[in-house]
Amino acid sequence: MDKSIKGISLVEALVALVIIGIGFVAILQVSAFTISSMDRSMEKNKLNFLSEMVMEDMIGNPTSLSSYNNFNETCNYNTKGGTNLHEKQKDKWRNKLAEKNYIQIKNSSGGSYKEKKRPCFNQDSKKTFTTDRSGRVNFKSNKERIKKYLGVVVK
Question: Domain-by-domain residue ranges, the chain?
């Protein structure tokens, strides 16, 4: 073979492409992991904010603490309605859990909007428990395996 010809061979080019391809696959896997961990983090923050909201409502109305007992929601968020403060607050919790009017996406074909919300699974649960002086919130999201327990003594 003539040593004066400069350039790369076909095999060298294929080896370089394989190495670059492996690098791109690794980068895509890292970005997919990052996106899923950010999603889990946002879900944890949401559960924190919702549980703190429930606790603040209980602390704000200590005379009706027993009325907040046995709030148990899965995926069927139906507003019950009521005239009492604790019933209105429970409806507020249901609306927040149902993510009503959170994210609206405009359809590309027209001016209408559709709601974008995370799916709810039947194993997900949001519960409250109260005694005469304390309240507790248990939120579970089984798909993400996220649990949030928060308790407070109400004076």
Answer: 45-153
